[in-house]
Design brief:
It contains three helices and no strands. It is mainly α. Helix 2 crosses helix 3.
Length: 68
């Protein structure tokens, strides 16, 4: 949400998406501390799952007629 306080349109959307992916990667990598798995793999997995969930949610919104 923060990028939309300072900007709008495509630029704010790109910053929000990239920022979200970075945070998702960081959270996934941090979970590797507790699971004893490779931090890069855990971070990538979390980022990919988050991106897929976001895309599915976006397309469901499109299907029911909600605009972003």
């Amino acid at each position: 949400m923060i990028p939309f306080f300072f900007g709008s349109g495509t630029a704010a959307t790109v910053v929000a998406v990239v920022g979200s992916l970075i945070v998702l990667f960081g959270v996934g990598a941090a979970t590797s501390i507790f699971t004893n798995r490779h931090a890069g793999r855990a971070g990538l997995r979390m980022a990919v799952v988050g991106a897929v969930v976001a895309l599915v949610t976006f397309f469901i919104g499109k299907a029911v007629g909600q605009n972003v």
